[in-house]
Amino acid sequence: MSPGVTRSIAILGGTGPAGTGLALRWVRAGESIIIGSRDAQRAQQVAATIKQKAHAQASVSGMENGAACAASNLLVLTVPFEGQATLLKQLKPAISEGSILVDATVPLAACVGGRASRTLGVWQGSAAQQAAEMVPKGVSVVAAFHNLSAELLSGDAPVDCDVVVCSDDPASAQIVRELARKIPGVRAVDGGKLENSRIVEQMTALLIGLNIRHKGHAGVRITGLPSEAYR
Ligand SMILES: NC(=O)c1ccc[n+]([C@@H]2O[C@H](COP(=O)([O-])OP(=O)(O)OC[C@H]3O[C@@H](n4cnc5c(N)ncnc54)[C@H](OP(=O)(O)O)[C@@H]3O)[C@@H](O)[C@H]2O)c1
Q1: Are 9 and 32 in contact (CB under 8 A)?
Q2: Helix %, strand %, coil % for the chain, to 5?
Q3: Does residue 42 line the site of ligand 1, with CB under 6 A?
Q4: Cβ–ligand 1 contact at 148 (below 6 Å)
Q5: For residue 227, how far is its CA from the centre of ligand 1 (angstroms)?
Q6: What is the model's pLDDT at position 6?
Q7: I need a labelling partner for 78 at 20 to 30 A (CA). Which of 69, 105, 130, 221 fits?
Q8: Is the CB–ligand 1 distance for residue 105 below 6 Å?
Q9: Is 192 left (phi over 0), alpha (psi -120 to 50) or beta?
Q10: For the whole prediction, is pTM greater than 0.90?
């Protein structure tokens, strides 16, 4: 970790299935988690539920999203695409320079009434690239966790899926790959530049379509690479 990065992880929009699932796995791995929400009370209730599910000593608290940003500089954004830009605009003053923003947003067509098995075109190329345009200067955006099923994360079994991590900042990407590897069953793959997040986001729509068709919980595995690719 770079010297300025604290080890508490704030999950913005952490009250939904994606944020809750990641929080559960990370508190079980010993990380300290802040659940962020538009409503502090909801955040605290969800934090209490996660603590109950994880273990009594689990370090998890709940705060309004802005307070969560002020309390951490390792931020994970798990909100629907339709709320991403507005929320980032609101939170901009609370995000400190040197922070890492991990974006897991998938621009599903469902957010405009379309199918969850299709994605929307995003002017910037991807939801993560949109986020990169909206954060304050000096904040690194890392795209990750798009292909992990929240349903599997909320369980106890290892998650049979790789996490492709994309960023224009290699040091921040390394921190996020370490975080991904804390989830049992997950291998983290260096996915290169942030622009590759467009492809990773779209893979989620494919996985959702496969889940609907075959009634399962599909994940992805990237095979055939040397072991360094998974570090
Ligand atoms: N679910 C999955 O399996 C999965 C897997 C990988 C990636 N993702 C991606 O991760 C993101 C979150 O997924 P999810 O299933 O957890 O979504 P969700 O339940 O629809 O939303 C998560 C949280 O975001 C907040 N939120 C909702 N609408 C908002 C808005 N307009 N503005 C600001 N905050 C808003 C809500 O928290 P408060 O009301 O408490 O503020 C909500 O609990 C999505 O972009 C999704 O595509 C999901």
Answers
A1: yes
A2: 45, 20, 40
A3: yes
A4: yes
A5: 33
A6: 46
A7: 221
A8: yes
A9: left
A10: yes
